[in-house]
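Worked example

This section walks through a single chain of length 228. The input is the sequence exactly as stored; nothing has been trimmed or padded.
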Amino acid sequence: MIRKKLITSSFLIVSIFFLTGCGPAVITKDAAFPKMYEQQPRSILILPPMNESTDAEAKDYYMTTTEAPFALMGYYTFPTEMVADIMKQEGVYDTEILYDMPLNKFYEYFGADTVLMTKIKKWDLSYMVIASHLTIQIEAQILSTRTSEELWKYTGTVVIDLGGGDGGGSLVGLIVSAIATAVNTAAADYVDYAHLANKRIISTLPAGPYSSKYMQDQSMQLIDQSKK
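Given that input, the structure is written out below as tokens.
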């Protein structure tokens, strides 16, 4: 019961931050991503992420969170396992090779309007005896398979507090906090946190043709990352 309460408490104190550079400048979706509205893509082919973080397992955690959210935004997404199988049949096994392929090949092989490329910039767990934080930073972009133009790009960062509280400053309190931090860190569901990072990024994407908000969200505001 104590362990459950400690884990629950850690979720209640999750803090989410965006790297917004020089202040909270905002921009509309239409102004930020005009080519998405001009080209009106219907399908997205999701490539495996490039892992630039120090965590070797980050790619596996994140890959499980990509397909469904983009489908919920109103786009047809190609099943990732099918894509991987076809690419292997073509002799392509490495993510690096996929990212270097001419984009028109993805239209040729799959009929995909666009390709999603993501980079895991950070997946860092900082652990100290009475405090720990998980920082996830994802950079995502959508490219046209017909024009090779960048239609959408956004970077999202979440910082999750996995600590156990201040414990009141006493020796007993510090011990309790240390135990809580260790429990919370060990019990952390990193896939859930990857979902959280993904949700923040994908919310900036213009709605696709299978969404009720299609071509109706141009005035929605988001943080203008071009002002960094």
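What to look for: The first strand starts at residue 26 and ends at 28.
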